[in-house]
Amino acid sequence: MEGVTERLSGTPARWWHRLDDQRIQCDLCPRECKLHEGQRAACFVRAMQDGELILTTYGRSSGFCIDPIEKKPLNHFYPGSSILSFGTAGCNLACKFCQNWDISKSRDMDRLMDDATPEGIARAAVHHGAASVAFTYNDPIIFAEYAMDTADACHAVGVKTVAVTAGYMHLAPAREFYSKMDAANVDLKGFTDEFYYKLCGARLQPVLNLLAMVHHETGCWLEITTLLIPGHNDSDLEIADLSRWVERELGPDVPLHFTAFHPDYKMPAVPATPPATLTRARKLAQDAGLNYVYTGNVHDTSGGTTLCPNCGHATVVRDWYNIKHHDLTPQGACPNCGTLIAGRFTKFEKAFGPRRIPVRLHAGG
Known about the structure:
Elements: E1 2-3, E2 11-12, E3 16-18, E4 24-26, E5 34-35, E6 39-40, E7 46-49, E8 52-55, E9 64-68, E10 82-86, H1 101-104, H2 118-127, E11 132-135, H3 144-156, E12 160-165, H4 171-178, E13 183-187, H5 193-200, H6 205-217, E14 221-228, H7 236-250, E15 256-260, H8 275-287, E16 293-296, E17 306-307, E18 314-319, E19 322-326, E20 357-359
Helix pairs in contact: 2-3, 4-6, 7-8
């Protein structure tokens, strides 16, 4: 937490209460930041002003791009579709290996664009032919009010919404938040509390609690990503334990992505993840009973292919973000044996492809 001297602009935040000592407590995430007047929370974007909690990034974005849905990564949520991606600034974790640290750790609020209203974002998605809007780049739970309003605006015009998040959120606000999300990819960053505490400044159990809640209590489609960092969370034991937990607590049909680390932020001396590590992790997860396990951030056609869990037919073949072959019915069934593939599907016409297209919103949102 840190103090601020400038007069902040912002909108009223939700999920907080007053304490007996003139402070307030933010109830959004397990950090439970307790703030004096003029202090910012650990996420940097929530602050106490005039005795109230405010969100300082509502309506402001760090930029917009049209991406393939596979980049989120989501392999079972309308494969081949395009998605309008945006974020704000700040984060409620302190990951030493952050791959988007220039945005998530930003303290330069002036870099944020104005006029990104929820309705303007929804209109932009329609204008650019994006099937969905992704709250990403930094963690959307810290701008939950903004993301939820945007989700409402998107749904009003037939656009779906996706959260890309670390899942470090209290369950009460999470139930409201995920009720408005059509899909989510949650980073399960490791499978020991020591890893979370030392490298993320957080705890493991709240993330596990959230994963179970989202999967069992909401209609939000869920996929999980674990970034494998050499020497830190890539042992056979930890990967097997993580995979068995997913199979036992969430079921065999929740897709699990193992992605490659590259040296960045506060861990520049750690080597990049060898492709063989991802292949090994995928095999361990499959051996644990998971039906859909993928490798990411590498060219690996085998690790990007969706196999029918009944007959083994290759229903969707991918190379990184590029769909090379699609062989599913519009209902998401294997054409070879009729088995339904878990996920959300529709008639496939043409993949958006691996392009990344920056876009600007028109003035006025």
